[in-house]
Design brief:
Elements lengths: L3 E6 L8 E6 L7 E11 L3 H5 L16 E8 L11 E4 L10 H4 L23 E5 L3 E3 L6 H19 L8 E5 L5 H10 L3 E6 L5 H7 L3 E4 L5 H6 L4 E6 L4 H6 L4 E9 L11 H6 L3 E4 L5 H14 L5 E5 L3 H10 L5 E5 L2
Parallel strand pairs: 8-9, 8-11, 9-10, 11-12, 12-13, 14-15
Antiparallel strand pairs: 1-2, 3-4, 3-6, 3-15, 4-5, 5-7
Bound molecules: zinc ion (2 copies).
The site of one zinc ion has 8 residues, from helix 2.
């Protein structure tokens, strides 16, 4: 093709953002080329920028909250065609042959790839994705909203729908940020009695607008006592990256309840095993989802009017956009837009 494209790359661990011109890549068998329209900046992109993820190779173009349009299709791609609107998320494809894939558990594939980590992602005008990593975007979801659904959205949506909670159960979302503001909306739309927990009351009104039935200010009251007034939460989705705060939530569960942790705080959790035993509660991690899970997330969001709150920046402003996300000032997701 010989055409050029703009991309934002990191060329060494801890390196700065570099805006570069690259050859537009060609898809090989089983791949498509996506003309990127928007790409969210995720907190996990720090793992690429700072070189914390094992096995990273540089230079690397990060970005795993991609929304765009298929622009070229490689050989043996049957289900996708040029012009289709698609998202590419954290799940960057799987091998189809390992034991887990043979059982259909593609998210747990031992050879799974992460978009923007194992191959170049969406901080770029074009990117190459395996067909197994594509989610179709419904017509009513704009690209800049579809992007954040591909990691933040699918992570909390999939965590909640697999949590065991049923309609009417009390579900608490701890932390009203990038993940939590979506978690509150999904919890409400899935039919749970939804409790939002955050420090202070500056996000109380917003949490209620997003669908929370109840709000707990973690600085003014004891969260466990407040949750036990509802009989405890069947599920607590812990999205604030604070190990101490997360650890203390276990006693806010109802008997048999689950504390679900979809994002990693830097320090280890300190859980009193006796609290788990006496009320038969558990702590569980959650890992993202497949491309089909992402497509379910997009479709459910369109159906139930769930929207991410975003700030948009052009690709050229990647350094400023990244800093805005990293500082935690943004409400709540930063999205790079192309052109
Ligand atoms: Zn992410
Ligand atoms: Zn596999």
């Amino acid at each position: 093709m010989g055409n050029k494209m703009k991309a934002a790359q990191i060329s060494k661990a801890g390196g700065e953002w570099e805006l570069v011109e690259r050859e537009v890549p060609e898809p090989t068998a089983g791949q498509v080329r996506v003309k990127v329209e928007a790409c969210g900046i995720c907190h996990s992109d720090v793992l690429v920028k700072d070189g914390i993820w094992p096995g990273l190779q540089y230079p690397r173009v990060p970005g795993h909250e991609i929304a765009g349009r298929i622009d070229a299709v490689g050989e043996n791609v049957k289900a996708w065609s040029v012009g289709q609107r698609v998202g590419v998320g954290w799940h960057g494809g799987h091998c189809f042959v390992c034991e887990l894939c043979r059982r259909g558990d593609f998210a747990m594939c031992i050879n799974r790839k992460v978009t923007g980590f194992d191959f170049d992602g969406g901080y770029s005008e074009y990117m190459i994705a395996p067909a197994s990593a594509l989610a179709a975007i419904p017509a009513e979801v704009p690209a800049e909203e579809a992007g954040p659904f591909m990691c933040a959205g699918v992570t909390v949506y999939n965590a909640l729908r697999n949590s065991g909670a049923r309609g009417g159960d009390v579900v608490a979302v701890h932390g009203i940020g990038g993940l939590g503001h979506l978690g509150v909306q999904y919890a409400r739309q899935m039919g749970f009695e939804t409790v939002a927990i955050n420090r202070g009351n500056d996000k109380q009104e917003l949490a209620q607008q997003l669908g929370a039935h109840h709000y707990i200010d973690a600085t003014a009251t004891d969260v466990v006592t407040e949750l036990q007034k509802f009989g405890g939460a069947r599920v607590i989705l812990a999205t604030a990256p604070n190990a101490q705060a997360i650890s203390s939530l276990v006693d806010g569960l109802s008997p048999g309840g689950t504390l679900v942790v979809p994002a990693a705080p830097p320090e280890p959790l300190m859980i009193n095993a006796l609290s788990l035993i006496l009320r038969r509660t558990s702590v569980a991690g959650w890992y993202s989802g497949t491309a089909k899970d992402s497509q379910d997330t997009l479709e459910f969001s369109a159906l139930s009017a769930v929207h991410p709150m975003i700030e948009k920046y052009p690709l050229e402003s990647v350094a400023e956009a990244y800093e805005q996300m990293h500082s935690g000032r943004v409400r709540f997701r930063v999205v790079l837009t192309m052109q």
